[in-house]
Specification:
By secondary structure, the protein is an alpha/beta fold. It has a single domain, classed as P-loop containing nucleotide triphosphate hydrolases (Rossmann fold). 35% of the residues lie in helices and 27% in strands. The strands form two sheets. The chain has a six-stranded mixed sheet, sandwiched between helices. A four-stranded antiparallel sheet has the order 2-1-4-5, with helices on one face. Bound molecules: adenosine-5'-triphosphate and magnesium ion (MG).
Length: 220
Amino acid sequence: MLICEGLSKTYDTDRGPVAAIRGVDLTVNAGRYAAIIGRSGSGKSSLMAMIGGLSRPSAGCVKVAGTDLWSLGADARARFRARNIGYVFQFASLLPTLRALDNVALPLLLDGRGQGARERAAALLEEMGLGAHLDAFPSEMSAGEQRRVVIARALVGDPVLLLADEPTSDLDEETEREIMGLLERANRARGTTLVLVTHNLALAAQAEQVIQVADGAVAP
Ligand SMILES: Nc1ncnc2c1ncn2[C@@H]1O[C@H](COP(=O)(O)OP(=O)(O)OP(=O)(O)O)[C@@H](O)[C@H]1O
Ligand SMILES: [Mg+2]
């Protein structure tokens, strides 16, 4: 379902090139739950952004459900992402001027699937215990509530691949458990392939596959 081959990312900076990911090969089978672990700066977010179709690799390829993401044109890739990939970003990513409901419905609206989008968004938010916050702006919600909205937004298009980059960092343990429960439910109940970046080794131990990134490479 997810295949990376010879995947590399080098950033050009004022101080010269930074090789963040260096020749990564990896496979995650359909419906699996994989955890990516590794020290800060090892390249986890860089890897996820290439897998998610957000950051162009310097070399190599990413195949999601048989489609070579980076051989598509920009429009086709955006469409493919909207239909197949949900992304939970490491850092705040909700649009501050939109209410929770509209943040969640937006990917469907942008993809021309507006019909029933708000109803679907509302149902997802209610499922996540946010029924009372449909009309709240991000600034009016706690960190954990905002994280749930981000997860609802990632799931609204019914993706085959759900990518979550440290979705529970800086949350208390109970909220972390709740958020993980939502992600695992998507993985089990919907059959969504889940790739989760975490610093929490206890969490990673629950995954079916653990991918260790060190200095831009994946341990075999
Ligand atoms: N946009 C960028 N431009 C230049 N260098 C970058 C950029 N993004 C990341 N890097 C560098 O690439 C390397 C990997 O960064 P990355 O964010 O992928 O690490 P990470 O494993 O996600 O770290 P963390 O656990 O702290 O989130 C680091 O050395 C970082 O400084
Ligand atoms: Mg990161």
